[in-house]
Amino acid sequence: GEVDSKLLLRGLGPSIGIGGTIVDPKITLFRTDFTTPGFPQIEVAVNDNWEDAANSNEVVTVSQEVGAAVLATGSKDAILLVDAVPGLYSFVMEGVGETTGIGLVEVFLAD
pTM of the entire structure? Predict the structure, then answer.
């Protein structure tokens, strides 16, 4: 976009409620740096276990505001709530310890 945006990014595994999910997902948000030759991806934010985030209380509030299910206490799912400046972003979900399984990624515009 052309203006700053608040984004709620979710990497879900355990809370999906089916077998074979990623047991402990981690999510990372990257932004493309167009000012550097080769346009490298710059890590903006990372989360493993949503409750460990400094803004976890705000995550709960914003989740409710956008209609996303609030995750259970103790869930190992990952959530990022970020203020994104205009740019090109990518979002990666992976299993901690290189574990694999089924996962769900969600992106909500939270402005």
Answer: 0.91
Question: What DSSP string describes the chain?
Answer: --S-EEEEEEEESGGG-STTB-SSEEEEEEEE-TTSTT-PEEEEEEEESGGGSTTHHHHHHHHHHHTPPPPPTT---EEEEEEEPSS-EEEEEEEGGG---B-EEEEEE--
45-95 pLDDT, tens digit each: 999 999 999 999 999 999 999 999 999 999 999 999 999 999 999 999 999
Closest CA to 11 of 75, 89, 97, 57: 75
Report the Cα–Cα distance between both ends of the chain, in Å, rounded: 12
Burial class (CB in 10 A: 0-12, 13-18, 19+), 41: middle
Instruction: Look at residue 1 and tell me whether its pLDDT is greater than 70.
Output: no
